Amino acid sequence: MQQGHASASDRRDFLRTAIAGGAALAAGRAALGHDRVPPAAPPAGAFRIVHMTDIHVQPELGAEAGLAAALAHAQRQKPDLIVTGGDSVMDVFEAKRGRAEELRALLLGTLKRECSVPLRHAVGNHDIFGWNKSRSGTSGTEADWGKRFACDMFGIERSYHSFDQGGWRFVCLDSVQPKGDGYTAYLDEAQHDWLVRLLAETPRTMPVCVVSHIPIMSLTTLTFGKPRGRDKVGEDNVITNGEMHTDATLLHDLFKRSGNVRLCLSGHIHLVDRCAIDGVTYICDGAVSGSWWKGPLQGIPEGFGVIDLRPDGTFDHRYEAYGWQARK
């Protein structure tokens, strides 16, 4: 995820060198930063969600079977809701029309066939059709060009929305904004104003869970990439604008003032971490696809987050591997 939009192959090569954020996962799975591992069923009074991000479904590498296996394992956790966190397909950002339609059909067909739990969706950069015009061959005038394709695929009116369930208010943001033939990460003005109003209208006693594809804040963005040598000591650390929200401080100040945002979930990095600041916890979950269906990424296996949310705003989180073996 360098500045602008890297090709799928460039991004794979780059990420193979990444340093995994957070602790290494023992035996292919670990719980990060919580007091206890939830039981097979949600604790009494808790609302359980599964956060499945970076699925990157494709006809290659057995990804369709991998998604089916992930959904089966996710449903064994007995969730009340599954939230997909973006990049559900791989990739329509720079894909030709035929490939984009194939990927959408593959995703929707698999979800319909394999999932009986209610689904909600956030939009990721790979879900946006044709933004790289030079590679996709699009003109930008197509009726479903850009985010319209993603909204139609996910059955949502627009790329950001909210809903209430389990005593919580969920806010699915749209992290991805255009930058040339690529993208950057922030909320546009209309979306930011909508979020300000929404949080102001939400009672301070009602906990809020924010879902964004690109992390608003994440430690993995600092451990991400090639290690810096001693010759770089004294220079600034740089987080490029496609790795983390460029309006992170603005959003965090808004969350802190609102007093009701308790949890922010993200993906995009394919690594796992958790940080808590001013009463707001930011969790980046690993990818259903791992290293784009080629195995674990820097020790983080293919998996998803399992979160038990309580009406008082407390929660438990664990990262759950589902035992996928890459088909190389």
List keywords for this structure.
6-stranded mixed beta sheet; 24% helix; 5-stranded mixed beta sheet; alpha/beta; disordered N terminus; 328 residues; Purple Acid Phosphatase, chain A, domain 2
Would you kindly provide a written description of the structure presented here, covering whatever features stand out?
This protein has 328 residues and is of the alpha/beta class. It has one domain: Metallo-dependent phosphatases (Purple Acid Phosphatase, chain A, domain 2, 4-Layer Sandwich), CATH 3.60.21.10. 24% of the residues lie in helices and 20% in strands. The protein is built from eight helices and 13 strands. The chain has a six-stranded mixed beta sheet, covered by helices on one side. It has a five-stranded mixed beta sheet with strand order 3-2-1-12-13, with no helix packed on it. A two-stranded antiparallel ribbon has the order 6-7. A hairpin with a 5-residue loop joins β12 and β13. α2 runs parallel beside α3. It is globular and about 50 Å long.
The helix content, as a percent range, equals 10-25%
Beta-strand proportion: 15-25%
What overall geometry do the principal axes of the alpha carbons give? globular
Give the second-level CATH assignment, the architecture. Answer: 4-Layer Sandwich
Would you list the SSEs in sequence order as H and E? HEHEHEHHEEEEHEHHEEEEE
Main sheet properties: 6 strands, mixed
Just give the CATH class. Answer: Alpha Beta
The count of helical stretches stands at 8
* CATH fold descriptor: Purple Acid Phosphatase, chain A, domain 2
